[in-house]
Structure formats: structure tokens, C-alpha cells
Recover the amino acids of this structure.
């Protein structure tokens, strides 16, 4: 039962439960996911048929590939206003992400005759996971595919869980086509991640898999890491709001509920500096929660929510940095002055007119963000996520002579005889 609690009075057990949130069941999910991936590697077509035949009798692997006709039909079926909204969002996302790009190569002279540098190149092939099931997420297609395209990735593939009749939502197909997907596959969960990671059946093997999803998708990505690269732990959505007494309780209630309607494992935290505000927000949340279209999901995710009162703004930020939220809203006077207080957050929303949905859809920043506390050591998706770097060096004869004593001493200390001899051979030549 949601209630107003004092931040300073939280028991260690209660605080730990809030901090662990959606990652609490992760070990069990990981074990079951590894079983799915093992079956998939042993018999990919049999496993896919077993899982997806209920959506289409006598399933063939080719049935999981979206055809050009299906994409054309999706454009016809998608509402013109929705297509215009996707185009507006896509433009802002592309503008923001292209401005992140840096030069493809740089070098510097470390000392006379010793030049070191770095090349930056895009990953050649990327698989993008677009969630489905409880909701439709064409925005996720934009958020994952457009930064990859901006970074220069040549081969972009998308996967998304199909619905009845093995069909994908038309808006998802339109967004994927707009964003440069070379092929789209009708597949979800650990099966989609495994097929892209291992290159099974009709699926290409990719170099990296990105995109948010359930804890099952997050577990599958973690399980295939090393076989391919992955982006970040982007599991069930979560929001953290820091608000002072000047805020409107109803607006805060909608911000709170907006996070909770995503998924039964979603989480929301409000830390208010006013007891009265916290109590009014609780009233509004309680009033509105039962009448929502996704009321069942919200009722489940309320178990992961909290409305807290802090003695000070600094205490609120201390807890926010410990929580490391996916989304952090700062609804305080002069919010920019508080940026220096933020250590751990996926994306920050400053002021009363910067709700999380703006970033979810169309402001231009990315909505694929670390969850479950991973914002303490992961960044959100960006063009950097699709680039890899290669270092290089070039030494003149004189430069090698200059560093040879250090190289030889270290090689001999480590007992690597041939390392030392490879350098000595060149010193003899000169």
C-alpha cells in the first residue's frame, strides 16, 4: 500500500528493496534464459517452431522475416498524423545524435619521432530490439536505429515480438523503415537476442545488440555478451522526481503514473521537500490509478513505488545518486543550478515543462537508458554506442632508441624474452 514515508526514517530493509527494484529476480531470470539460448543453439528451427507455431501453423523460418509487401502495407495502414509525428521525432533525434560525432581519426606526437593516435570506425552490423507485447513502441525503433545510422553502421536489423497471425504493428514497421533498418524480423525475447547473436537460421550474425526490453531481454543480452557486444542494462522503466512545495500535485501524480504504466516491474520515486505536497500527490495518485486503461499494470508496479519526504534538497540528491535512476526530474527553483549535484542518472529533465515523455519521444535525446541502478556506471545510448576505436603508433629509429631501455627492462622483468629480442634486433640494425 503506497503511503508517504520520511526518507530519513526508512529502514535498511525498505531502502534496500527500493534500490534493488526490478533487478531483484534477475538471477532466476538469467538461469531460465540460458536454458532457452542453449535449446536455440542446439536446434534453432525446432525451438523457433515450438515457440512461435501458435501464432502461425506450420511455421517456417522465412515466415519470421518482414516482407517488402508487409512494409508497404504498414505505411498504408498507419495514420498520417502518426507518420508526421514519427518524422518530427526522427528529425530531432537525428540532429541531436549527429552533433555527438567526433572526427574519425586523431594523432599526437608523444615525443620526437613517436606518434600515437586513434581511429574511430562504426560497427559493421547491429541488431535492434524493439519491445512489444503490452504496448507498441515505434519510438524505440527511432531511438535505436537513427543513432546507429548517424554513426555510419551499414547493416541495421530490427527484431520485435509479433502478435496474432504473426503480425507486427504497422507503426513499428514504418518507424523501422524510416530509420534505415535493412531487414525486420518478427521475433521477440531471448529467441530474438540469441538468433542475432549466433546468426541462426535466416538471421544474420550481428556485432552488437541494442534496445530495451523486459528483464528476460536484459538477461538474454547479458548471456550473449562476449559473443557480441551489447549496449546497457535497459530493463523496466523507472523515474525519480525531486520536487519542492511550489509544484502542482496533479501534474506530479501524472509524472509518477507515467512511469508505472510501462510494466508491472516499473518503478517510480517522488522525493518532496514538503510533507503537504507529498500527501496531496498521494491523494491524486490514489484517485487516478484505478481509472486508467492500464490500471492492472499500475496496480502491480505501485509495489515498486514510493513517495518520500526529505529534510533537505541535499538529502534528496544523495538518495537519487544512490538510486541511480533511469529518468531524473528536477522540479526545483532554478533547476540548472542543481546539475552539479547529479552523479548518477540516465537522463535528466529540468523544470516544469520538461516531462519525461518529451525525452521518450521527440526532444532528441535518447530514451534507451540504464536501469536498475546501472546509471552509476553506464551511459545511455548514443552514437558512441555504435563506434569502436583502434589505436595506432609509428616510431622513428630515434624514437625506438629513446624508449628501448624502458621496453627492455619491462620485458625482462616479465620474463618475455622474445619481446626484448624483437626490440634488440632493431637496435642492432641501426
Amino acid at each position: 500500500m503506497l503511503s508517504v514515508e520520511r526518507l530519513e526514517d526508512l529502514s535498511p530493509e525498505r531502502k534496500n528493496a527500493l534500490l534493488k527494484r526490478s533487478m531483484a529476480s534477475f538471477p532466476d531470470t538469467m538461469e531460465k534464459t540460458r536454458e532457452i539460448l542453449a535449446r536455440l543453439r542446439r536446434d534453432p528451427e525446432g525451438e523457433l517452431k515450438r515457440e512461435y507455431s501458435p501464432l502461425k501453423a506450420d511455421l517456417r523460418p522465412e515466415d519470421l522475416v518482414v516482407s517488402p509487401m508487409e512494409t508497404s502495407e504498414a505505411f498504408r495502414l498507419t495514420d498520417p498524423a502518426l507518420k508526421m509525428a514519427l518524422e518530427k521525432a526522427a528529425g530531432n533525434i537525428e540532429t541531436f545524435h549527429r552533433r555527438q560525432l567526433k572526427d574519425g581519426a586523431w594523432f599526437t606526437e608523444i615525443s620526437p619521432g613517436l606518434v600515437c593516435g586513434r581511429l574511430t570506425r562504426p560497427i559493421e552490423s547491429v541488431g535492434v530490439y524493439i519491445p512489444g507485447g503490452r504496448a507498441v513502441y515505434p519510438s524505440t525503433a527511432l531511438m535505436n536505429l537513427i543513432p546507429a545510422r548517424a554513426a555510419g553502421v551499414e547493416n541495421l536489423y530490427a527484431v520485435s515480438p509479433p502478435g496474432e497471425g504473426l503480425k507486427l504493428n504497422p507503426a513499428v514497421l514504418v518507424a523501422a523503415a524510416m530509420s534505415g533498418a535493412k531487414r525486420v524480423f518478427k521475433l521477440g525475447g531471448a529467441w530474438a537476442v540469441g538468433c542475432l547473436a549466433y546468426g541462426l537460421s535466416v538471421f544474420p550474425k550481428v556485432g552488437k545488440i541494442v534496445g530495451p526490453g523486459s528483464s528476460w531481454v536484459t538477461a538474454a543480452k547479458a548471456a550473449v555478451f562476449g559473443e557480441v557486444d551489447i549496449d546497457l542494462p535497459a530493463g523496466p522503466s523507472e523515474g525519480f522526481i525531486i520536487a519542492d512545495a511550489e509544484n502542482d500535485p496533479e501534474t506530479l501524480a501524472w509524472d509518477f503514473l507515467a512511469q508505472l504504466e510501462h510494466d508491472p516491474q516499473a518503478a517510480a520515486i517522488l522525493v518532496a521537500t514538503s510533507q503537504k505536497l507529498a500527501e496531496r500527490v498521494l491523494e491524486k495518485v490514489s484517485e487516478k490509478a484505478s481509472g486508467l486503461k492500464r490500471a492492472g499494470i499500475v496496480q502491480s508496479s505501485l509495489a515498486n513505488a514510493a513517495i518520500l519526504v526529505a529534510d533537505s534538497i541535499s538529502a534528496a540528491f544523495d538518495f537519487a545518486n544512490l538510486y541511480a535512476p533511469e529518468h531524473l526530474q528536477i522540479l526545483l527553483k532554478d533547476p540548472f543550478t542543481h546539475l552539479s549535484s547529479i552523479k548518477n542518472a540516465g537522463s535528466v529533465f529540468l523544470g516544469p515543462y520538461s516531462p519525461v515523455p518529451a525525452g521518450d519521444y521527440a526532444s532528441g535525446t535518447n530514451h534507451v537508458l540504464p536501469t536498475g541502478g546501472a546509471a552509476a556506471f553506464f551511459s545511455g545510448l548514443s552514437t558512441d554506442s555504435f563506434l569502436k576505436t583502434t589505436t595506432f603508433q609509428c616510431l622513428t629509429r630515434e624514437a625506438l632508441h629513446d624508449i628501448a631501455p624502458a621496453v627492455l627492462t619491462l620485458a625482462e622483468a616479465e620474463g618475455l624474452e622474445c619481446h626484448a629480442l624483437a626490440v634488440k634486433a632493431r637496435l642492432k640494425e641501426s
Notes: The mean pLDDT is 94. Residues 4-17+235-376 form a domain with the Rossmann fold fold (CATH 3.40.50.1980).
